[in-house]
Specification:
Blueprint (H helix, E strand, L loop, with lengths): L5 E2 L5 H10 L5 H11 L14 H10 E2 L4 E7 L6 E6 L5 E11 L7 E7 L2 E2 L17 E2 L2 H14 L6 E4 L9 H11 L12 E5 L3 H9 L5 E5 L5 H7 L2 H4 L2 H15 L3 E6 L8 H11 L4 E6 L16 H9 L1 H11 L3 E4 L13 H8 L1
Parallel strand pairs: 1-2, 6-9, 9-10, 10-11, 11-12, 12-13, 13-14
Antiparallel strand pairs: 3-4, 4-5, 5-6, 7-8
Helix pairs in contact: 1-2, 4-5, 6-9
């Protein structure tokens, strides 16, 4: 029986060094291969210059760099956003979204190449505005499965990936060790060399994990999926709030911002009459006095094709809001000194929101 090959995708430089030592080669070969895998996007050992023919043959027998298969994709005719459905080795499916030539809200005139990655198969949180919530949680992704999404996106991009957002399927902080491992590789200048400010980890809120990340030396930006500062409303939208209420989360986020000396992004989807009142604005203004922050106002992707969501939202009301109330909400926050960005609805003409393509594929 032939031994299963080791997939080296997802291995750190240290792990690659250890691999070469185990097969009787000098450890520096691991440093060389590290750049080949992540910088040059190696898929075949035969092209590794600097390795002898016999070493390349040995590598091909013992190891591989294996990517998930793209089994579905959609591309927006409006903005070029491309969503890819990837099938993993065990048959599980995850989503990756490439947002090309995205305008940078913080640097007008510059363009970003952003990839939004999944960290879990499914999600256990059941947020009512997220299609992934309609899918059952299966497992965490490995570092290799997370990195593969970014490398595949780079293969389909016309420019270098500048931004990575851990905001796809799953809760990143429930797979925090893999996320930290991936960030270390992404920011290495011998790998993809993505600047720390270009990496964002989005969370619905896991207090002890937020505290642990604040103590880590790795650098990235934190986005908190807020959507309401009213405990009852947030619990309706995000059941995890019943376990980890804002009263427990906000102090942890405040401490994170203090330790990292950086602003926290608060993600806020506006729902008509639910979280867009004068009191909601007042709550955000009060919070801004405690935590250095910016607010990303997000337009809602209606999930009318999913019948098992606990919260039903009228798409017509959302479209009305896009044209009126969202601008007023943003202006009033700005008048109070809060930095606010109204995020573009990338991929609105496709299944662009988290979990939509995978949920449709699963149900269809």
């Amino acid at each position: 029986m032939t031994a299963k090959k080791i997939n080296l995708l997802g291995k750190s430089e240290v792990e690659l060094k250890e691999f070469f030592v185990r097969i009787g080669e000098p450890s520096y070969r691991g440093t060389q291969l590290f750049s080949w895998i992540y910088q040059k996007r190696l898929t075949d050992f035969s092209g590794v210059t600097g390795f002898s023919k016999s070493l390349r043959a040995r590598l091909s027998e013992a190891a591989e760099v294996r990517y998930p298969e793209i089994v579905g994709s959609q591309q927006s005719g409006f903005d070029g956003t491309k969503k890819m459905l990837l099938e993993l080795e065990d048959g599980s499916k995850i989503e990756t979204v490439l947002i090309p030539r995205e305008k940078s809200p913080e640097a007008p005139g510059s363009l970003r190449e952003t990839v939004c990655v999944s960290t879990q198969v499914g999600c256990p949180l059941d947020c009512k505005f997220c299609a992934t919530g309609a899918m059952k949680f299966s497992r965490n992704l490995t570092p290799g499965e997370i990195l593969a999404q970014i490398l595949i996106a780079q293969m389909h991009a016309t420019r270098r990936i500048t931004n990575v957002v851990f905001m796809g399927m799953g809760e990143p902080l429930l797979n925090v060790d893999a996320v930290k491992h991936v960030i270390r590789i992404l920011t290495d200048d011998r790998s993809m060399n993505i600047r720390a400010k270009g990496i964002t980890v989005s969370t619905a809120g896991v207090p002890d994990k937020i505290r642990a990340l604040g103590d880590e030396k790795i650098k990235f930006r934190l986005a908190f999926s807020l959507h309401s500062l009213n405990e009852d409303v947030r619990s309706l939208l995000m059941p995890i709030n019943r376990k980890y209420p804002l009263a427990r989360l906000i102090p942890e986020i405040k401490e994170f911002a203090h330790v990292k000396h950086d602003r926290v992004t608060f993600e806020y989807i506006l729902f008509d009459g639910l979280n867009d009142t004068d009191e909601d604005i007042a709550r955000l203004v009060r919070l801004s006095g405690q935590i250095p922050m910016k607010v990303n106002l997000l337009r809602f992707h209606p999930l009318t094709h999913l019948s098992n969501l606990g919260l039903q939202v009228d798409p017509a009301a959302i479209k009305l809001k896009v044209s009126s109330r969202i601008d007023d909400f943003a202006d009033r926050l700005r008048d109070s000194g809060i930095t606010v960005f109204i995020r573009s609805n990338s991929g609105e003409d496709i299944d662009g929101a988290c979990g939509q393509l995978a949920a449709r594929n699963k149900s269809g």
